Amino acid sequence: MRNNIVAGNWKMNNDATQTRVLINDLNKALEEVSINCRVLISPTSINLTSAVALTQDSVIEVSAQNMHQAKSGAFTGEISAEMLKDVGVKTVILGHSERRTYFGEDDKILTEKVASALENNLEVIFCFGESLEDRKSENHFNVVESQLKNVVLSLSASSWKHIVLAYEPVWAIGTGETASPEQAQEMHAFIRSLLVDTYGSSVAEHVSILYGGSVKPTNAREIFSKEDVDGGLIGGASLKASDFTGIISAF
Ligand code: PEP
What is the architecture of the domain spanning 5-248? Predict the structure, then answer.
């Protein structure tokens, strides 16, 4: 029906050698386990080309952590969707909370980025999630609803074949604090209900909704067992082959 997915977000970690070593370790480790989900890794942009080459014969898919919305031009330091495609990348993470917080990516920029990625036939992993204050003030459903409405819920129904959602409560990213499986399920069910309301259930049932926020081999199975949780976006634990493999094996 819909894909289960475990996607690693390496952030600004791993130089060229470390990238090669971790991918080789993962390729080996994944040969030993049964894999019941899609597996993605997202190295830094400078290492995407080698990552694509090193995963040629592997189940691992390579995604980018970000891209610029413009086709080309005077945008020093940026990389376009076409450039990602050109090196064999098929998926891009957009809207990660670190991009929103440290690089000022707002709904308008993200709308443009998502459009550019889809025009270039890239799959998008769209991230969103509430802050701790939003959760404490019980505003988390409103925040998530507006993050989705302002960027992706106006896309055509057919676009959803190329979009994966990643609910990442900001208070759980890199903090060791995890949403409980029940909290994750509650929010994922709410997200799916927004998709049902907007597009109907046949579209909504096919969209993978990932949870992100301190997922580890020790909590992955319980979180992934929830009906509307279709996998995870993994930060810290994707940097160690044994931990990442342990999370993949949770499916
Ligand atoms: C992330 O950055 O997307 C993430 C979920 O990080 P961590 O797993 O380290 O909390």
Answer: Alpha-Beta Barrel (3.20)
